[in-house]
């Protein structure tokens, strides 16, 4: 990763020349769009992603949003730098039904030398409804 820009790395994940993040297989989501300062993941929750009362666990929403927002920040990184999530927040506005396809889009709001800030939305692919929002601050790691 450090041998290419963050945008080139994410484009490699999108086109399959680089491996997708392993968590995507576990939580049933994949990258579907990459642009400078914006990344979209799509997926759908299964019964394996439910909490004890049978609804989609908040961690599923959080992981999808953390992924798209942090990867949006990654697209702004120059060659030789890394990043990690410093903090993130998620607001769930409604429950995603099992099997429903959703798109999580992260967009960079600020990119500085040491931090990047992004917002995200989780929307139904077919109905366009808002299911959750998020915000993140990522720290830029320089060698």
TrEMBL record:
Keywords: Hydrolase. Pfam families: 4HBT (PF03061). Gene3D superfamilies: Hotdog Thioesterase (3.10.129.10). Residues 54-127 form the Thioesterase domain. One of its GO terms (molecular function) is fatty acyl-CoA hydrolase activity. It comes from the Bacteria. Signal peptide: none annotated. CDD domains: PaaI_thioesterase. Belongs to the thioesterase PaaI family. PANTHER family: ACYL-COENZYME A THIOESTERASE 13, THIOESTERASE SUPERFAMILY MEMBER-RELATED. This is Thioesterase. It comes from Pseudaestuariivita atlantica. The lineage of its organism: Bacteria, Pseudomonadati, Pseudomonadota, Alphaproteobacteria, Rhodobacterales.
